[in-house]
Specification:
about 350 residues; five-stranded mixed barrel; 7 helices; alpha+beta
Amino acid sequence: MLTEIKVQAAELAQKQQEAMDTLLSGAYENSYYQTAFDVQKGLGFGKTLSALPMRAAAEAAAYPWSGASFSDRIWRNKDRLAQALGDILAEGLIRGDGVRELTAKLQARVDSGRKDAERLMRTETARVVESAGLRAYEDCGIEEYEILVTLDSRTCPVCGRMDGSRYKTEEARTGLNLPPLHPNCRCTTVPVFDGLDETATLRAARDEEGGYRLVPGDMTFEQWKAGLRNEKQEDIIIPKSVGAKAKNYDVVAPDGNIYQFVEGSRLQNVQVFAGKNGVKPLKTEVAEGLAEQYGGSPENWQHVKANGILDYYGEERAAEIHWFQEASVGRVKFKVKKWLD
């Protein structure tokens, strides 16, 4: 039984190595040419490049960047898996485990082996893509690159601290200052162009609902994370009328009709997403226009959003509401961004 397990594990390892050879070589070649194309678009002129030597992709794929090549790691994983399955069988037979219990343990270990293979594939693919990108930078005359991390809550502290860091292409070292920085790393790099106004560019950041929004191109991960902490606000309670009518707000819907909030309801998930303490600035003309119309300082105006309940012809209707606010002025210009039903 153990011999059969080892044979099956070896066959799987061979298939994985062949598939990885093809995947990594193709990823290297595609990434090299795509990066070279993108860089030359950024430079604004073309540069003659020689065809990528066929051996370059194979050599990059086999490079032992973390002490062992991907092939070595595949076969090490194979040996560990075969040994673990053999141990589970032997121990189970000694204990007299039933077929169902033994099957469950074997399946759990196989699933673990599958996850090891997936992690290896993702990390190695990231490595050859970044290696190819680095070669394209060098061939196009780019002397510096910048680390770019994913702006979301899954980004680890190691990568977060590296965001925005710049390095010479000739000093690039995979795992140290060139992604991947660790297994399953999602970081990448961008070329540094002399004279580029980065404040005029944008980058994507994932929000808490899993979607994306655009933030300033020169914003780092640490600045983005700090912005998340600052932008969360307390719920806003819409008071109930007791005798005199309570304060409420006119909210303009997309069709131009005006509604008000349900008394006693709350504006929840309040977030400042632009302006003071937001993750991006308010457009200058917007901030100045608000200050001119309502008062306050242009730099203190904020663009805010929240989920609220509107009185829709006597019925309650949920909507995403946007408005502007300034501490000395209050809240103005409420509108329905979208209905949530």
